[in-house]
What we know:
Mean pLDDT: 97
CATH class: Alpha Beta
Number of helices: 2
Distance between the termini: 10 Å
Strand content: 25-35%
Structural class: alpha+beta
Oligomer: single chain
Radius of gyration: 16 Å
Amino acid sequence: MVVTEIRIELKPGVADPEGKNTKKTLELLGFEGVKEVRSIKVFEVEMDMPPAEAKEAGEEMCRRLLANPVIQKFSVQIK
Length: 79
């Protein structure tokens, strides 16, 4: 069994309202020096297959369901 880590994040230039609101709230709470906050989704998927197949399956999951290719990019790593 392998654990596949899938990271989904917005492409550069795409607005990230969740990240902006989080940054603003951190500043209101007194945290100084916060330059940028980005929201990133991370999925851990356990698979019962060889690592190479698991990585390929994770990439296919992103293309078919987990990521919107217009505004998001993804990366898949085997742990």
